[in-house]
Model the fold of this input.
Amino acid sequence: MSSLISTKGGGYGRGIKIEEDTFVSEGGPEAGVPHHYFDYAGIKELFGRWEIFGLVEHVSTYMQARENFHDFNPFPYTKWNIVVKK
Done:
């Protein structure tokens, strides 16, 4: 079982891009921490040799958010949940 950040997440593209779909935050409590974001194709590539029991994308849609809200966001980010077996 794993949770992976979705490319549809609010943090996608924020920070310094160090490789495809991977960004390093420049501020806040996650400063200097690389975050890799996944789309469906990326998950299928990563887990291609595993048996997938369940794959769910949870999308958070922010209807209203103040400037810099994502610096202290108390809500879960848009993510994938996956259950696999090797």
Remarks:
- The longest helix spans residues 40-46.
- The chain has a mean pLDDT of 89.
